[in-house]
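Quick one, T. Sequence first:
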Amino acid sequence: MLAGNPVVEKCNARFQEIFGDYNKNASGKIIVSHFGEFSQDLVNSLSTSIEDMMLESGDKKGVVKRMFSILVEGLQNIRIHGERDEDGNQVSFLIVLQNEEDYKVTFGNLIKRDKIEGIIERIDGLNEMETSEVKELYMEVLSNGIMSNKGGAGLGFITMSLKSKNQLGYISEEVSDDLVFFSVKIHLDRIKKEPK
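Structure tokens:
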């Protein structure tokens, strides 16, 4: 990626800010971080490496499977739907933070400005739903089988919400006249919490 490219610089600044916050404010450790493009080989390698690290850390297989689903959805979303800047760069990132009780996974990528409102509405809608409603929506979308022109069925954020069992956080920042850098943060519990 070219130095002096204002879109790349703004996106890298967001990545560095999140990375710095995780380093400074978290009691855990960053187990993976990547800023740049995500090839299919890199997606496969990262997913397998994170899965192996989680198993070595003693995470239960159910948590590992849920993380794997979140990673695959998030990274494929970046690969398939992430926009490119005017120089052809697909600016994106992944950060995975491991704490004693949870994981925090943050994905970021470029999105066309005219699509951001719909994405935010979709996430806000998911955040308002109970887990059973998210599961019902997942099954409905899955059974409809309607594919987008880029090959997706609209399951990405639904899957991340369903598998994390938590609300999705997000930040959007305009980086050019027609592009927004969008990051989504997923919280995945490592241990079961006692019901309130």
